[in-house]
Design a protein that fits this description.
By secondary structure, the chain is α/β, with parallel strands linked by helices. About 40% of the residues lie in helices and about 15% in strands. Strands 1-2-3-4-5-6-7-10 form an eight-stranded parallel β-barrel, surrounded by five helices. Helix 2 links the parallel strand 2 and strand 3. Helix 2 packs across helix 3 and helix 3 runs parallel beside helix 4. The longest helix has 22 residues. The chain is globular. It starts with a strand and ends with a helix.
Length: about 300
């Protein structure tokens, strides 16, 4: 497995500096963010280390090769099933450009969310998924690029009740999606932390969905049991848990990687830093990457 990190944590650095930082710390890979240039609407969004509308795929690939860094994937995480039709259209069109860029640059995976309208029920959202996603998956097949769907519910506030802004959050939904869209190009960017705070087994799905593992996000989650006992699971998730660096939460990382290996996965595994204790300044965020690297590297050796 190649150990990498998600570039969203370094929004103030250029692509060249992101790659240099990865090499300096000792990472093997980076997942590059490819939001359309513009203002971010939430934390970790709106980062553009690759402008897929303007940058040269050959030049980006050459920069990574010169730095000795593998591009594990290109990430763009909007709401492609937004109730705002224009927002959804723009997101879908840009993701197709991301797929094309991946193909031209030789990047194997484009990572994203399925999307969801949080104000409507599961079946209404699933009907929207069936209307939108077959053509996106067909596009991925035509250019030879895998799609990695991250399993974050994107549920942070009461405005996103009851389902958040991403449909693909549980094994039950994955089974249904992969049955309806059986293409091997359509798979998971698996993040165990999102299963932890949903009170689910974060290891068991690895065996069942072994053939759908296209990318891994390495993030930990710390559930505060006292807060959970006070507010219950019907509260918004950030009321009782916090995303933290690997090793600072509830995930048993040796057990997790044993299960990953048993599933036959040997692809990229990238750290996603969302730990507020390491976000005070650029030096703190770089320190987070060093701490995560030193925690995880021995487990991948």
């Amino acid at each position: 497995m190649k150990l990498g990190f998600v570039s969203a944590i370094l929004p103030d650095l250029s692509l060249a500096d992101v790659l240099a930082t990865a090499a300096e710390i000792g990472y093997d890979a980076v997942e590059l963010m490819a939001w359309p240039p513009g203002k971010a609407e939430r934390r970790y969004a709106g980062v553009t280390h690759v402008n897929v509308a303007e940058d040269s795929p050959a030049d980006v690939r050459a920069m990574a090769d010169d730095a000795g860094i593998t591009l594990s994937g290109i990430g763009y995480y909007p709401n492609m099933l937004s109730a705002d039709a224009e927002e959804a259209r723009v997101a879908q069109e840009h993701f197709r450009r991301v797929l094309d860029f991946c193909a031209a640059a030789g990047v194997p995976v484009a990572n994203t969310f399925v999307g969801r309208d949080p104000a409507t029920d599961l079946e209404t959202n699933y009907a929207a998924f069936r209307a939108v996603w077959p053509s996106i998956v067909a596009h991925a097949e035509s250019v030879g690029v895998n799609i990695g769907i991250e399993n974050c519910p994107m549920y942070f506030s009461r405005d996103e009740w009851p389902g958040g802004k991403n449909l693909a959050t549980t094994p039950a939904i994955w089974r249904r999606m992969f049955s309806d869209l059986p293409s091997a190009r359509f798979g998971l960017n698996y993040d165990p932390s999102h299963l932890v705070w949903q009170m689910m087994d974060y290891v068991a799905p690895l065996a069942e969905f072994a053939g759908r593992l296209h990318h891994l996000h390495l993030k930990d989650a710390k559930v505060d049991r006292a807060k959970l006992n006070a507010v219950g699971i019907m509260a918004t998730p950030l009321e009782y848990h916090a995303p933290v660096l690997p090793g600072r939460g509830d995930i048993d990382w040796p057990r997790f990687f044993d299960a990953v290996r048993a599933a036959g996965y040997d692809g990229p595994a990238v750290v996603e830093v969302e730990d507020r204790e390491y976000e005070g300044c650029l030096d703190d965020r770089k320190r987070a990457l060093r701490v995560a690297h030193d925690t995880l590297r021995p487990l991948l050796s």
